[in-house]
Structure formats: C-alpha cells, structure tokens
Design brief:
Shape: globular
Helix content: 25-40%
Structural class: alpha/beta
CATH superfamily of the largest domain: Vaccinia Virus protein VP39
Mean pLDDT: 84
Distance between the termini: 65 Å
CATH architecture of the largest domain: 3-Layer(aba) Sandwich
Strand content: 25-35%
Largest sheet: 7 strands, mixed
Strand order of the largest sheet: 10-9-8-11-12-14-13
CATH class of the largest domain: Alpha Beta
Low-confidence stretches: 42-52
Length: 315
Amino acid sequence: MKWSEISIHTTQEAVEPISNILHEAGASGVVIEDPLDLFKERESVYGEIYALNPDDYPQEGVIVKAYLPITSFLGETVDGIKESIENLLKFDIDLGKNSVAISEVNEEEWATAWKKYYHPVKISDKFTIVPTWETYEPVHSDELIIELDPGMAFGTGTHPTTVLCIQALERYVKENDRVIDVGTGSGVLSIAAAMLGADSVTALDLDPVAVNSARINTKLNKVHEKVTVSENNLLNGIEQKADVVAANILAEIILQFTDDAYRILEDNGLFITSGIILNKKNEVKDSLIKAGFDILETMVMEDWVAFIAKKTVTA
C-alpha cells in the first residue's frame, strides 16, 4: 500500500489542535518536529533518553506530520484538514506559516520512520513513558512505567502539557480518590491516576477513536479494572461526584466547562487543567475564579501553563 505524508508548517500553539484534526481525519499518529527540542535543558535527575538529529527539524516554527493511505478520497480528506485548520483562527490560535505539503511514501518507510522520534522519557519523580517497542528496565524500585504506542492515538505523554498534568496528579492524587479525566485522548492521565492509587477513574472523550485507543492503553497497562472509558462531550450529563477532575485540553474548551467541573467536585476537590498556552493564562484563571475555585498552584513549562484549582466552600 502507498501512503501520503501530509506535512503542516505551523506554530507550537497550534500543535495539539492540528494533531487532533489529523487524528480525526484518520491518521493513526503524528510526528512533531519542533526545533526548540534541540535546545531544551533536560533535568538529568529524570534521565531522559533522546536521539535528536538537527537535520530533522525546521529552522523556525513547528512541522506536524501525519500519514494517510492513498485512496480516491485523499483529496477530499486533505481539503477537509485544511478547512479545519483554518477554522482554528476562530479560536484566536496562531497558525504561523500554515503551509501544507503532500508527498508519497511507501509502506515500509511509513511503518518505521516515525518511531525514531520516540524513546523512553522519565517525565516526573515516579513516571516514565515507554514506547511499546522499546525495552526498558526501571532505574528505581518505586518507578511507575506507562507503556504507550504513539501510533495508536493522539497523546504520547511527553508533550509539556501532559507532563504538567502528570506531575500535578503525582502530587495531589490520594489513595481511593475518584478521578474524572476530560478529553482523555490516549488515556495517559487516567492510567497515571489509577497507578497513583485512585479508586476509580472515569475517562471521557468525544472522539470514538480516542475512546477505543484509551481502552486499549488501559488494558496494556493493566489498569482497565479501575478505569471506565466513555464517549462523552466534556462533562455534559455527568452527575457523579469526583475528588479530582483533570483536563489536558485547549484553553478555549476549558472555559466551556469550569462551572460543570465545580458542580461535580466534592468540597475541597481539585480541578487540574493544562493545555493552556501562556497568552491564555489570565483568561482561564479568571474563569476558574469566577466559577468559585481558589488557585492553589500555577505551573509553567516552556510556553504552557497548568492550574491546580480547589473547590473551597465557605459557610
């Protein structure tokens, strides 16, 4: 089979929404070429394993690549992708160059080339993300390993927004907590919460492909008995109470359900939000405060922000 590589030159801010658009268009995974990765100062305490070649990266901006099978409908699919990306402008998302290039690759190249971008990465004191094809031996006895196949779904666990969320979960999730993960994607946050001792985790996503992928990943990591994955639009119709609500999702989407998060959280429950680009920080913060939350902590990594907000009820 022949495959078409679609390559989109954009900005860091647009990486996640464009990746999701590609995923919904039928891409089983994305490759992100961000030149800032070449110059990051890595915390050696986490022992990240990287193998980056400067020739694979653009001089400016970010390139997002995906692979689609060449069919008679490919042209319509690409047109739909372009239209969906243009629609991101309505959310005030900077698209940068927003140039789209198409090229043809054979199946052998497609099946293996993207794997060079993924290696085991220790992202917090406890968690290490390991691609399923890599062999990795834990360095510490309390190290928690999350196995993921980045080709299965959107969300590899190594993007700054996901790292922030997992680090927050690691500090705040307690034994027997009930957790709701909104926009679960690959299920990585739900898996982390379950491994940290949560009694039950509800993973929600509007995309049925993501729902299926999250179910696969929860079984792969042996937490499927704790995690229930369901197709749902944000927290619409959700009545069950939670001790923690986590959402690694666009700032514009977070603004749509802060009131619902407050409603379903127990008193003193926590709302952990990430996926917030730096210039949207104050907008999300104001929305959280307006809904009734107290901001306990603001976490920043590169150009991304995460909030830990507490539902404080006063007499």
